[in-house]
Amino acid sequence: MRFSDADFVIRASADTTDGAFSVIEEIAPLDTPLHSHEHEDELFYVLEGEHVFVIGDEEFDAGCGAVIFGPRGVPHAHRRKQPRAGRFLTMCSPAGFEGFFRELAAAEHRGAIGPAAYAAASARYGITWL
Length: 130
Description:
The chain has 130 residues and is of the alpha+beta class. The protein has one domain (2-129): Jelly Rolls (Sandwich), CATH 2.60.120. It is built from three helices and eleven strands; from the N terminus they run ββαββββββββααβ. The strands form two sheets. Strands 1-2-3-10-5-8 form a six-stranded antiparallel beta sheet. Strands 7-6-9-4-11 form a five-stranded antiparallel beta sheet. Helix 2 (98-109) packs antiparallel against helix 3 (115-124).
């Protein structure tokens, strides 16, 4: 699926893991501002490119093969060192957060993407933007 000029591929979902975890591949990933998750922990595995992850008060430079953990409730952010470059996997536990990406891709497909769509999806999936 695609939105905001980035591709998101759901490699594992609540349906395929009995709700245990999901894995989402982000291709040409978006920079993500500081936020926290109410429901899930995230593990990021960098496949390509140079990225910077902020988890709580720590900042991590992350290249190919790096693994970064973002526990639920801890503010975190992501940015690419080179715009529109890179690829990484995000594992979420428990599963379900993949629905956030599906919802935003569907909104963009309908021409309804914008602040209201992001706010509604964020509220449904327990995301607080800081």
